[in-house]
Amino acid sequence: MGSGRKNKKIDARFTEEEYNLILSLEKTLGISKTDLIRKRVLDNAGTVVVNAKELIKSLDNIFAELGRVGNNINQLAKHANTLKLKGLVSSLIIERFNTYFEQHLKNQQQLEITLRKVIRLAGRS
Known about the structure:
Elements: H1 16-29, H2 33-42, H3 52-85, H4 91-124
Helix pairs in contact: 3-4
């Protein structure tokens, strides 16, 4: 925000529902009503107000799923290597596995890029 003395006041009226929403956001985001409204009005284009609890819950679910996928990939790779040693796996299955694994890596990289953007945005607020 701009520096200097804040000596101008704006009065606004809210419905009970709107006011309760503001109170809820104040608790959830951990910032005062004044700062919340100031950020929403003055920095709306540049700053994204994020519900931190929801973001952390979503990230926890995403990383748990990535962990399960990684575990499955390791199990499949071990099984495929065992079959390959016995000469029981076709090259088509290996090609498919490699394709799916490459796609998984691309998805993981895209997730990292997106998270870095979110972290940068959060650092600006």
